[in-house]
Specification:
heterodimer; A: 278 residues; alpha/beta; Nucleotidyltransferase, domain 5; four-stranded mixed beta sheet; 8 helices; 9 strands; 39% helix; 20% strand; B: 262 residues; 2 domains; five-stranded mixed beta sheet; 10 strands; globular
């Protein structure tokens, strides 16, 4: 039997297909303005797994755009899916920090279950958007920011909280001749300290895993470790934990139903464009 | 009778005022740009030229605003809170609450009968309550800042903004444009979001009538309308709302000179 997890984030859609093992995982754009590309990512994952859509026993959708997806049997919140995903990858994890394109979350996990969570989706500071806006202004690629910042000898302190004002501060720092790596290190510290202060409300317990797109930025990960005072775990593919969790939860639901002889509750799913804002 | 000057070096615009006998003689605005020192110098030179005066005709200069220290020709510095209170009180003695919407910060200032500020609250950590938010949205909609207000007044169905962050607000505006939402409805939505942000700021100091609005935000009729709806009060608008702190600074310069003379 095959199971799929679809995590539709504000920027990227992630799809995982698995049976006993992961057969395909694909990350593609959700679609910047029309946000209708999620189905393309699913099609690509099916192609890679060499399966047809009807061969998938159960599809669970999660993430910001989960409600609008017509190709899922069930929607489960990203908090639950993330917790499931990281616990399956790292059974020792008790705290997950997820920094995505549009929000940041802290999840407290015990026995693979969510026992607490905090979230910021009200303000771009402390989310991936903060780095995105500044990378745009500086003409840098997001991926190079982390590595570059590791060369910093003299980290700049970014005094603005607001992304708009911080971007302005960065531009004037660079105009003054401050080395870019020192400015970037300052930005990474700014986002790390903001996220860390929020997650601290959960009383952080080891092990800690960092996921989401920003986990690919080594500068932010190092800054988070500085705050924590110990190393954190980062999955090989930090964008996929939500989708992995979604697929696993679908598998659990299906197997539990089969075991107890109950029918499997399915959605009227169709593999077509997601319609947002309707 | 001597002349006095007040210069307000703001994050976006530098404003300078010359007064004589507590009356406005001349005023001038220049963009602050990247070099506040040059902006302050230029503003001063140009206002003097306008008034047909030279620097030695000015008995005392008070500098205020975010970049006040860059006006090195000033006699002293006074906070923009005190200056704004003073300036508004000069025009509207009955005003007890001033809402100042600037390029980078919004302030609510409580003012007493003598034109002194008794309490204030500043939002400078977030662009969403400031003129910056409007600037960002105007750029996205490709319209002039001056057209924002009149256009917003034509809104039939203001967009309900789910965010109070200028960055997320920008993305939301882009999505709305893609959906075909009319510009005026997006603008009115932004004005509502800003009004809400300012409203929550006011709860820190309380609102007492009469109320006035100052700063560049007071040039935006759309923002004024939404603020008046949200606050349930009428807002008095000075004829040149941007120069209130500079005017107050010039009046402070006069006061100080009189105090020294007596």
């Amino acid at each position: 039997m095959y199971f799929a997890g679809v995590d539709i984030g504000s920027t990227m859609t992630k799809v995982v297909i698995m049976d006993e093992a992961v057969l395909a995982c694909v990350i593609g754009p959700t679609g910047a303005e029309h946000r209708r590309l999620a189905n393309k990512v699913m099609e690509e994952a099916l192609r890679q797994a060499n399966l047809s859509f009807d061969e998938i026993s159960y599809v669970v959708a999660t993430g910001y755009g989960r409600i609008s997806v017509p190709f899922a049997d069930k929607q489960i919140t990203e908090i639950t899916c993330h917790a499931k995903g990281v616990s399956s990858l790292f059974p020792t994890v008790h705290t997950a920090i997820d920094i995505g394109g549009q929000d940041a979350k802290g999840i407290k996990i015990a026995d693979g279950r969510v026992v607490g969570f905090v979230m910021n989706d009200k303000c771009a500071a402390g989310t991936g958007r903060f780095l995105e806006v500044i990378a745009d202004d500086l003409g840098l690629r997001l991926e190079e920011m982390g590595e570059l910042s590791l060369n910093s000898k003299n980290r700049v302190e970014i005094s603005s909280t607001c992304t708009v004002f911080a971007a302005q501060e960065v531009v004037s720092r660079i105009a003054e001749g401050t080395p870019i790596e020192d400015v970037l290190a300052g930005l990474h510290e700014a986002i790390a300290s903001r996220v860390f202060r929020m997650v601290e409300r959960l009383k952080i317990e080891r092990d800690v895993v960092v996921t989401g797109g920003v986990a690919k930025n080594i500068g932010v990960v190092k800054a988070l470790e500085e705050h924590a005072g110990f190393p954190v775990l980062v999955p090989e593919e930090p964008l996929l934990t939500g989708a992995v969790g979604a697929a696993l939860l679908g598998k659990e639901l299906t197997l539990n139903a089969l075991e107890s002889g109950r029918p499997i509750e399915r959605g009227a799913r169709r593999l077509e464009e997601a319609t947002f804002f309707k | 009778m001597a002349f006095f000057a007040g210069i307000d070096v703001g994050s976006v615009t530098t404003k300078v005022v010359i007064t004589r006998d507590s009356e406005l003689t001349a005023y001038h605005l220049v963009p602050s740009g990247a070099n506040y020192k040059m902006a302050a110098q230029k503003a001063m030179e140009e206002v003097l030229a306008k008034a047909g005066l030279s620097l030695k005709d000015i008995a005392c200069i008070v500098a205020t605003g975010y970049g006040a220290s860059n006006a090195d020709f000033a006699t002293l510095q006074v906070t923009d809170i005190s200056c704004c209170a003073k300036g508004v009180n000069h025009l509207f003695p009955s005003v007890r609450t001033v809402i100042d919407v600037g390029g980078q910060a919004s302030k609510v200032i409580r003012v007493n009968e003598e034109g002194r500020s008794t309490n204030f609250v500043v939002s400078e950590r977030c662009a969403a309550g400031s003129g910056r938010f409007l600037q960002i949205i105007a750029r996205v909609l490709q319209i002039e800042l001056g057209d924002v207000g009149p256009l917003s007044l034509q809104a039939k169905k203001p967009v309900i903004y789910t965010t109070s962050c200028a960055v997320f607000g920008e993305s939301e505006a882009i999505s709305r444009i893609a959906e075909g939402t009319p510009k005026e409805d997006i603008l009115a939505g932004v004005h509502n979001a800003m009004a809400l942000k300012i409203y929550s700021l006011i709860s820190g100091v309380g609102l007492e009538e009469d109320c006035a609005i100052a700063g560049g935000g007071a040039l935006d009729v759309g923002l004024i309308k939404r603020l008046e709806e949200k606050l349930g009060v009428h807002l008095l608008v000075p004829p040149q709302p941007q120069i209130m702190a500079a005017l107050g600074a010039a009046l402070m310069a006069e006061e100080r000179s009189l105090a020294l003379a007596s």
